[in-house]
Design goal:
This protein is an alpha/beta fold. Helices cover 16% and strands 43% of the residues. The protein binds copper (II) ion.
Length: 125
């Protein structure tokens, strides 16, 4: 019985009937299924905790080649975004943000010069 139905379905598929065609085709991939590589990512610096400590959130992001990263300072004090290799350096005042475009694939580490525990990594791919 099962093989008869399968055979009928194959015949119907060969004839171009959509009802069997759709059930035998794999689902189309969705655009967001590639791990989240995007043209722009935002790194937030949240308000300090009760110990006066904060950090980049998230500390690691991945963007497309040519994409941009925006650092947003939501804390009440100044922070910075400084490349470990000297590619960029910017103060980020409370409430302000800093945007940088990454035209070249690679891994870019950065830190805050004012708070040694604040470090992060950007992957451009
Ligand atoms: Cu800082």
């Amino acid at each position: 019985m099962r093989s008869v139905f399968f055979s009928l379905c194959v015949v119907a598929f060969a004839a171009g009937m959509s009802s069997c065609k759709s059930s035998s085709s794999p689902a189309a991939p969705t655009p967001s299924s590639n791990g989240g590589t995007q043209a722009q990512k935002t790194i937030t610096i949240p308000a300090s905790d009760i110990y006066g400590s904060t950090n980049y959130s998230p500390r690691t992001v991945t963007v497309q080649v040519g994409g941009t990263v925006v650092w947003t300072n939501r804390d009440g004090e100044k922070h910075t975004s400084v490349s470990d290799t000297g590619l960029w350096s910017s103060d980020i005042a409370p409430g302000a943000d800093f945007t940088r475009t990454f035209p070249t694939a690679g891994t870019y580490n950065f830190h805050c010069t004012l708070h040694p525990a604040m470090t992060g990594t950007i992957t451009v791919q």
